[in-house]
Design a protein that fits this description.
The complex is a heterodimer of chains A (about 325) and B (about 290). Chain A contains 14 helices and no strands. Chain A is mainly alpha-helical. The longest helix of chain B has about 35 residues, at about 1-40. Classes of the chains: A mainly alpha (about 325), B mainly alpha (about 290).
Chain lengths: ~325, ~290
Amino acid sequence: MASFPDVERAQQPAPQRSALAEFFYQVRTLRSQKWGNLWGYVFVAPALLLYLIFQAWPIVRGLYMAFSDYRWIIPATHGWSSFNGLDNFTEMWTDETFWTSLGIALKFTVVYVPATMLLALFVAVMISKVKNAKLAGFYRVVSYLPVILPVSVALVIWRSFYHTEFGYLNYFLKSTLGIAKPPNWLGDADWALWSVLIAAVWMTFGHQALLFLIGIYNINPEQYEAASMDGAGGWAQFRYITLPMLKPIFVIVLVLSAGVLGTTVEVLVLFDTGGGPAESALTTGLYIYRTAFSVGDMRMGYAAAMSLVLGLLSMLISGVVFKMLRTERA
Amino acid sequence: MLRSFKRNLRLDALLVNLSLFFIVLICLLPFLWSVSSSLKGREELFQTLPTLFPQHPILGNYEFIFTRRDMSMIPINMLNSFKVTLLAVVIQTSLATMAGYAFARLDFKGRDLLFYTLILLIFIPRAGGLMAVYELMDALGLRNSHLGLALLFSSAMSTAVFIMKQNFLSVPRELEESAIIEGANTWQVFLHVAVPLAKGGMVVVALFEFLYVWGEYLITRTLIDFPELDTLSVAVSKITGWAALFTSSAFSTYGAEAAAHVVAMVPVILIFIVMQKWFIRGLTDGILKM
């Protein structure tokens, strides 16, 4: 395994302004800027065009859709005519499936985020303690393999692992751990969401572990040497050097995790649009997908409204987390 | 005292390697299991004591998915995957390189405003994104189109543009300046002087795009209605119609499915192992800097 010379490059210079502040500064000074080299526009035009059509437009259109009674299979509701004000949101308020699905999505997030983060941190710290460079490289590569695996492939493999009779997991539980009645993973309403969780953690912890690892490699080893001179043990070093130094990585990982509230693909591959036994794994993401693409009139308007609420909610959560981490120990 | 210190050290190393061994096992088991199942015949697959290493390895499962055109669309799906992925990689890498160059080197009105808008838009929630995308692609006639998928997948390029901008900023400017003095125009300077120096960034962008598009599931599943147009990552989740295999004696549908999984994972694993150095660089230059 090759070494990682580029890890040193991660040392990041502190930005003078946040992206948001920079944005407003640029808006204010736009009028005073000179036209300059017009080739610039030629260079950014193709990228910008593609971005405007396929990324920016759907944001705008989706926002409007959330306030309309758009049903895909009824052409009369297409376009801009079916505006229905806040009807979608009042319907959502009384839609029990929506609230249940939101509860499931929250439960998923609340378990997934700390579980993945702790596992990732543990793996990163362990790998950082491996002295042999080749062995450390091997561990890094192997722990990242689940992340690069196409999600559908990973989940289909997990599905066969979970099989009650022929699955490897229950075989292991029965033969090695001696559990007489191992769970019916995907078939039992009590276990369905946990099955999704285990697979999801497996698929993603490697990514966070690598981010933590890059952070740990960037800590000056002299800090640890000085601490051990002063008699600080392994735990104390971890608590008072590693953890504080990794704070920027924690912020990134948590902000990235906010999207978990919208989990869709994992449930979709494992249970299709049904949402598992007794809909016990029907997350809001899957409910939205089902509403828009697979049942009834394909109610894209209502789906867009739910998706807007979900998006704002995850933005709110990541904002709060961001604020909390910023001010703490500042 | 020194001896107890050494013993502690050895104990630590033992604990570290033991726990990492478990992690490795957990990470690799599904991979080993697919490869092993794909090489097993019917009898071995349903053995009551499954073994990790097949005793009588066979290639029949692979032969089935690649040659039985009447039942398996895996070769077509594989070509589709390569088509969409390569198209998206080429489009995104070239456009992001051009834009990154402009943001790093060319001075034009509104440049930084455009750049920061691009970055900030990452954080705007895509309310109804997929629904709006579905409508858009339908209106453009790009549903059930590989070109459509490639355009869509290459358009999310904020990170790519960011990486390319950083890349151009980190290479010395002098060569470009002397080329300008010699009378080259902006395009010539870009193509013949700047791009050769920015290959590293382009590799990183291409690598991330490859991994993303090859594994993309949700959008492809939604926009493609015909199995013969599916990419591999969607196709493997839909395999159900091979039950007829149960009647043939030598292999079973499980073995053939496992073979399809292996086919779908090999390209990304190879690319990742060969390019891992670039990969770390991409992470440190990309999300960790934003």
